[in-house]
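Format notes (please read before filing issues)

Several people have asked whether sequences and C-alpha cells are stored in separate files. They are not. Every record keeps both together, in the order shown below: the sequence lines, then the C-alpha cell lines. Line labels are part of the format and must not be stripped during preprocessing.
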Amino acid sequence: MRTLVAGIDCSTQSTKVVVCDAGTGAVVRSGSAPHPDATEVDPAVWAAAFERASADGLLDGVAAVAVGGQQHGMVALDEAGAVVRPALLWNDTRSAGAAVDLVRELGGPAAWADAVGLVPVASFTITKLRWLAEHEPEHAARVARVLLPHDWLTALLSTDGVAAARTDRGDASGTGYWSAATGDYRTDLLRMAFGRELELPPVAGPAEPVGRTPAGALLGPGTGDNMAAALGLGQLPGDVTVSIGTSGVVAAVSDAPTADPTGYVAGFADATGRHLPLVCTLNAARVLSATATLLGVDLARFDELALSAPDSGGLVLLPFLDGERTPDLPGARGLLTGLSRGNATPATLARAAVEGLLCGLADGLDALRAQGVPIGRALLVGGGARSAALRALAAAVLGVPVALPEPAEYVALGAARQAAWTLSGEAEPPAWPVPAEALRDAAPATALRAAYAEVLAKADPLLR
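Then the structure lines:
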C-alpha cells in the first residue's frame, strides 16, 4: 500500500494542493482555489481557499503535509494570536520609502548585504514593518508577533496553533532580519525597523517535523515558494530556475552564501541546507498578457505575431508596468523606445515585449554570475513558459542552454517532497524524477542585450 503526502502552495493568486505518492512523487489528486487580486489580504482568505482546495476528502489518507508560501508577506499578530491587519504581500510597494530610509540608517547597501545577504526593497518584510510603525501606529502598538504566510498557514493546520508557530531557513532568509550566512536572527535590525522587540518563530531545520494536523498527519516545516519550487524541480548547484509567473524569478542553488551590495541578488537560503541566491522582478507573464490586450488579440495570436517578426526592428521595451523591484524602481512605468513608421506594427511590438521580458531576466543571470554563482543550464517554468514565442527566444536572450520541465505545480510538488522527506527521516529528500525537454540552443543575442542595457542606462534617471 503506497504512502501519500500532500504539498500546499499558498501563492499570490491561489491556493493549490497536490497529493502525491511519497516514493515516486506521482500526483494522485489535486485541488485549487483562487485568491483575490490584491497586494494586501486578510490571512483568513488563505484559510478559506485552503478549505475549498482540499474539499471532498482530498487529504484523506495523507501521512504528511507541508506548505510552500509566497515570500515576504507580513502577517502581524497580537498577544492572543489574532491578525492585527490584512497581510501586506511581497508585491505591495508602499514601503519603498521605508526601504530607502533603512538602507541609509544602517550605513548603506553594503552594510545590509554583509548583515543579512540582501539590501532592503519594498518587497521585504522588514520594510513593511517600518511602514506599519510609521503609518499605522495604532496597529503597530498591538503587534506582538510577526509571521510569514507559510508560517501562518502551517500553524493553522497544526493542533498546536499559532502559539507554537515555526518557520524555516528559506523563508526566514527573505525577511531582512535573518542571516542565511550565520543562521541567526538579527533582532537589532528588527528593533531598528519597528522600534521594539517582536516575537519571532523559531527556525526549523530542513525536514524537521513541526507538529501534526488534527487528522494525525505529520507537518513539515514548509518554506518559501521559491525554495519549494527549487525542491520540486530537484535543483542542484549549476541549475538556475527562470520562473515566469506573476513575478519573474531567476534562482540558482549554491553551496555558498552570497552578499550582493548592489541589491540585485538576494542571498536567500534554500530548503535543503544550501543557498538560493535569487533575483526577482515584479513584471513577468503579465507583460505578455498586457501587450496582447493592447494589441486586441489573445495569447495564441500574440505568439504568432511575435514569431512572425525576424526581430523587433529597433523597438526596445522596458517592461516595468507595475513599477519594478530589480532594478529598484518602485515608481517606474513601462517605456517603449525606438518607434518609427517602419516598425510600428503589431508583430514588432509583440516581439519587443517578449525580448524586453527576457532581457530583464538575463540581467538577473548576469547578476548571479557576478556573485560567483555557477550556472550550467536554465530551467524555464511558470505560466509564461507556455508562450511559444518566449520559448523560441529564451536560449538566445538568456545565453545559456535552456530546458523546459514538464508543466507541473512545482511549488506544491516541492512542499509535498519536503513532506515525504520529513516523514522518512532520511538525510536527503526522496529522488523524484522531473522530465524536461531541452530547447534548441541559439547564438547569444548580444546586440539585443546591448540595446536593452543602453536604453535602461539612459532612462534610469527618468524612471526614479
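For reference, the curators noted about this record: The first helix runs from residue 44 to 53. The two ends are 60 Å apart (CA to CA).
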